[in-house]
Every structure is written in C-alpha cells, then in structure tokens.
Amino acid sequence: MTAKPTELPQLPFSRSTMLDPAPAFGELRQRAPVARVRTPAGDLAWLVTGYEQARTLFADPQLGRSHPDAATAPTLSDTAIMGGPDGDYDTEHADHARMRALLRPAFSAKRMRALDDRVAELVGQCLDEMAAARGRAPHQPVDLHAHLSFPLPALVISELLGVPVTDREYFRDLSHRASRMNSSGDAATAMADFHAYMGRLAAAKRVHPAQDVLSDLVRAQADDPSFTDEKLAGLAAGLLFAGHETTVNRIDLGVLLLLANPARQVAFLADPAGQITGIVEEILRMAAPADLGVLRYAHADIEIGGVLIRQGDAVLLAPSAANRDPAMFADPDVFDPSRAPNNHLAFGHGAHFCIGASLARTELRAVFTALFSRFPTVQLAARVHDLPVRSDHLTGGITELPVTWAS
Q1: I need a labelling partner for 387 at 20 to 30 A (CA). Which of 106, 150, 242, 260 fits?
Q2: What backbone torsions phi and psi does residue 34 show, to the nearest 5 degrees?
Q3: Burial level of 371, CB count in 10 A (0-12/13-18/19+)?
Q4: Region Disordered: which residues (predicted)?
Q5: Host domain of residue 167
C-alpha cells in the first residue's frame, strides 16, 4: 500500500551525535535508496541515500539547479542559498559551462599549490589567536570554532576573491546570515545586501583590477554583456557559501573525529606527513554536519533505483549517507586513513564536481598539519553530545568547539 503524504519521512531527521549521520538515512538507504520525503519547508522531494544512485544522479545532465516553473517549485527551506530553484531554466547548462571556464584557472590544483604558503600563514595567524586566548585565561578552554574553524575559510575565500581586509568580517557575516533557516526574512535581506555589496566591489575592480577572482569576472563582463552584475553577484555568493560554510564544518568535524579517539591522534602525530592525505580524505568522507542534502530539480523524467522521478520534482542528494554505503565502503562507519580507494562524494561527481575541491583540501591539509604540530596535546574540553548544534543553518554543524592542551 502506498503511504499517504502525511506518513512520509520528514526532514530533518534526528541524530544523537555530530560524528554520524542520522540513523534514518541508513535505514532508508537499506530499504529504498531513492525515497519520497518531506522537506523542512513541507514540500515533497526524492531523497537519495545510496552511493550508486547518488553518483549517477550527480552526473546526470537532466538534473539541475533551475526549475521549469520556479514559482511553483518545491523548496527545501527559506534560506537565501540552496533553499529553492536558482538560475535560468533555458540557459542553465550554458551558464554553468561559462562559469566553470571562468573559474577553472583560479581554482586549479596548480593555483592551489601556489597558495599553500599563504594558507599556512593564515592558519598560523588563527593558531596565534588560539594561543593568545589561552594565555588570557590559562585555566579556561579555548573555542577552536571561534578562533580557527569559523574565521579561516572566510579569510581564505575573501583573499582569493579579492575582498578588502576591512570588509572581511562583514563578508563573513553575510554568508552566515544567508544560510540561516527560519530567519523571518533575514536570510533574504542578507542576500540583497550581498548583491549590493558585490555591485560596489565590482565597480571598484573595474577601476583598480587586481590578481583575484572578482577582477577576472569583471574582465569577463567586457566580453559578454549578458554576464550582468546580478549574475556576477550570484556566482560570488555561491563561491562564498561553498568556500566558507562547508569548510567550517569540515574543520570542526575533522577535529572531533580525531580527538574523539585518542589512538587516531597518536597515530597521526607519529607520521603527520605520511598520513595527512588519508586523514583529509577520510574526514571528507565521514564528516556529516547537515541532515538534509544537495538540492536539484529534474529537467526530464528520470528512472532510477526502481522509481520514476518526474520532470520538476525536487531531488535531494545526500553525500553523507552515500559515503557510508556498505555496498561501496568496507566498514563504512570506521575512520580509516589508509582506505584506498576512497571515492567519496563529498564534492559531488561529474560536471558539477565542486570547483573548490582543491581549495578545501589545501585548507584542511594546512589546518590539521599545523594544529597538531603546534598543540600536540590538544583535547576536547566537552563531551561530543554536549556540543551546541547549529540546527537553524542549512549546513548544520556546531557553534562551539572547546579544547584545551598542556601548557
């Protein structure tokens, strides 16, 4: 018997710890890897929890961010980013190809390797702040989230984009506000403020261009009048969100994954250079900060996993669930830096594979190498279950990460 709409699983699912996805994801994956659910906004969507199905759909050109009728599209939430349809349905593929071509040089692996020293310098500055905070209150825990996880990604993406140093606090705050759910309209206000800010910054870059991504985008406007300031701002907003919010969570949860098991920390300290790549990839696979998924819309009927997804349906691809699929990963709930291959879906797959993947890996390598070198005795100063959760944000995560270390 077909379940009534009111009986469908309701997102977000409840979870007991930030170190694992909600159990309902695994239960659904076992029973129906492509299943109907209700979004936090109350709309119907297909939730994809199986690795094979998620990988296939990530690469399917018949899924997109736009919707044939945006006014009636099912939505995920009221966030200003990734909460509903985005982009022009008729030109999405062309717009996406142009965006990738514009950004590929700036986010190439070669460019990221050239940024290694600068990222390491910014990490060092954040760790200096942590040490200073400990010096001011030597008997109190230090909030690693406030001093490292939260500020660092904003510093890095701001520098890459070309945001003035004096504006970076404001820039970071806009990202934080735009990804809030149930914000009573503040998320939309933050996005409007962001677009206005980017318009002013684009005008400044036309007069004084520099070696940064925004200057590259402004130069591209000269060759393509259809690439308006509105589209430039939307592209920059996506880069800010992906380059800040998601990396914040991966730093926080990576620290938790390592510190929650002292043996992992000891093994890493014994051979940081040899283990860092495996550590980072396993953090990317296992970090599960949010209880939702990546929103897409069907541009045509798609048959997969024994179900028919109709044109216009919302589809939520859940990498955190797919990355724990035992059909793909042996002992999927075990943190194993030696796992090979480790073909996780943390950055998606196919044509929409995250263009900032190299940047995220650069930041994570720098963070975990420097953190444990600088503070080898760092440990959690709270129980994992007691850490405050960001339940009002699209990307989830935690709001505090108290740590301490031997002086």
Answers
A1: 242
A2: -130, 110
A3: buried
A4: 62-92
A5: 5-404
Encode pLDDT of 226-241 as tens digits: 888 888 888 887 787 7
pLDDT of the residue at 5: 46
Q: Is 155 exposed, middle or buried (0-12, 13-18, 19+ CB in 10 A)?
A: buried
Task: Measure CA 174 to chain center.
Answer: 16
- DSSP SS3 for 379: strand
Which long-range contacts (C-beta less than 8 Å, at least 24 apart) are formed by 105-112? Answer: 105/216, 106/160, 106/213, 106/216, 107/355, 107/356, 107/358, 107/359, 108/358, 109/358, 111/358, 112/358, 112/359, 112/361, 112/362
Q: How many domains does the chain have?
A: 1
Q: How many CB atoms lie within 10 A of CB 406?
A: 8
Length, in residues, of the chain: 407
Using DSSP, how many helices (H) and how many strands (E) does the chain show?
Answer: 15, 10
d(CA 224, CA 19): 46
Question: CATH number of the domain that 399 lies in?
Answer: 1.10.630.10
* DSSP letters for 89-156: TTTHHHHHHHHHHHHTTTTSHHHHHHTHHHHHHHHHHHHHHHHHHHHHSTTS-EEHIIIIITHHHHHH
The two three-digit tokens of residue 259, written as one number:
């510190």
Mean pLDDT (whole number) for 272-294: 93
For residue 148 the two structure tokens come to: 């490292």
Neighbours of 383 (CB within 10 A): 9
Q: Which of 238, 242, 214 is nearest to 153 (CA)?
A: 242
d(CA 209, CA 162): 10
For the stretch 94-144, pLDDT in tens is 888 888 888 888 787 777 777 889 999 999 999 999 999 999 999 999 999
* 200, amino acid identity: R
- For residue 328, pLDDT over 50 is answered with yes
Res 383 pLDDT > 60 = yes
pLDDT digits (tens, 9 = 90+) for 367-378: 999 999 999 999
Distance, in Å, from the CA atom of 315 to the CA atom of 48, rounded to the nearest integer, reads 7
Bond before 12 cis per omega within 30 degrees: yes
